[in-house]
Specification:
13 helices, alpha/beta, 12 strands, 341 residues, elongated, 6-stranded mixed β-sheet, 17% strand
């Protein structure tokens, strides 16, 4: 059976890109690591593919992907980042280079500065979790004019010239949450608050729209009393949810529609109130809330797949000019309860 670089990488405990560099005497690998890799390859009887080596050496080594994730302070993005890194690792053996930037919050000027940094590093494409502002739409359109392609992940910008989007159908995810709220009761009046993120986060805004429209159409006995934006901050979420619970003594439930749910959950627990709580994404606070029966259900959206497939789409385009079959690539939604964690 043919020995592959992947098998050598697994035995050596390194990336496939490291194996490729070690076997081809390229810089960037410690001497002892290179010797270990070469010994494993020799023991297994590895024989390099000359055609693949030539492609990697001569054609692909000038391609570079930039990545910008709005991830700092948001535990959801741990799995997104893992997907991005594993995809980059997969294509590294073809000479693909990369540069990853992260940011916190929804500062448009900061995201534009990070984009400009990547452009100065001569990237040919960018994987981006975009801020929903006209300035970012304009920036993506300008990148397109300069032949720098953008793939959006997790959130999208519908009016931009991005190549593709990988993420969930956010209105549908909101509909699922509203359906769970409605099916929890039998037509009795209930009051819910929604803890959102920011108007600059299109994904969460569409999710909230899905919740409200489904409740209006199918569950009119449920009232949405408040929609609070926490800027994905646990600190802000804790403060605003604490104030909400002090002012809304008749509140029956809360839906955490974005990040910052650790601070919000802390405020709920400290209040001693028994509320119907729904959330999105299986972060550690939500996982614990499910186990402790404080959270009824969480709607999940395959974060790893968002990171991996978004990066894979752009890598295949840059390396082989392979365009994605679909402009919008939706991940699957799943409902998690205490019985799943």
């Amino acid at each position: 059976m043919k020995v592959t670089i992947k098998q050598i990488a697994e035995l050596a405990g390194v990336s496939r890109g490291t194996v490729d560099r070690a076997l081809n005497n390229r810089p960037g690998v410690k001497k002892e690591v290179q010797e270990r890799i070469q010994k494993i390859a020799l023991d297994l009887g590895y024989k390099p593919n000359p055609a693949a080596k030539a492609l990697a050496d001569n054609r692909y080594n000038t391609k570079k992907i930039g990545v910008i994730l709005n991830s700092e302070g948001n535990p959801f993005f741990g799995e997104v980042m893992r997907g991005v890194e594993e995809a980059l690792d997969t294509f590294e053996e073809f000479g693909l280079k990369s540069s990853i930037k992260t940011m916190k919050g929804y500062n448009t000027d900061l995201q534009i500065r990070l984009i400009d940094q990547l452009v100065s590093e001569h990237v040919q494409g960018i994987v981006l979790t975009p801020i929903n502002t006209p300035e970012i739409i304009w920036k993506i359109n300008e990148l397109k004019k300069h032949r720098i392609e953008v793939v959006t992940i997790n959130s999208d910008l519908l009016d931009s010239d991005r190549m593709a989007y990988v993420g969930c159908e956010y209105r549908k995810s909101g509909t699922v949450a509203a359906g769970l709220m409605g099916m929890m009761n039998r037509g009795t009046k209930e009051r819910y608050a929604i803890i959102g993120s920011s108007e600059k986060n299109l994904a969460v805004e569409q999710r909230i729209y899905g919740i409200r429209e489904t409740i209006r159409q199918d569950f009119p006995w449920i009232e949405i009393t408040d929609i609070i934006q926490n800027e994905d901050s646990d600190r802000i979420s804790y403060t605003l949810v604490s104030e909400l619970l002090q002012n809304r003594k008749d509140l029956d439930g809360i839906c955490f529609a974005g990040a910052g749910n650790e601070g919000g959950m802390k405020a709920v627990l400290e209040s001693g109130r028994k509320l119907n709580i729904f959330a999105f994404d299986l972060t550690e606070p939500i996982r614990k809330g499910l186990k402790d029966e404080k959270v009824i259900a969480a709607i999940c959206q395959e974060p790893y797949k968002q990171g991996y497939e978004g990066t894979e789409i752009l890598a295949k385009y840059l390396l082989w000019n392979e365009k994605p079959e679909n402009e919008r690539n939706h991940t699957e939604l799943s409902i998690v309860t205490k019985y799943c964690v």
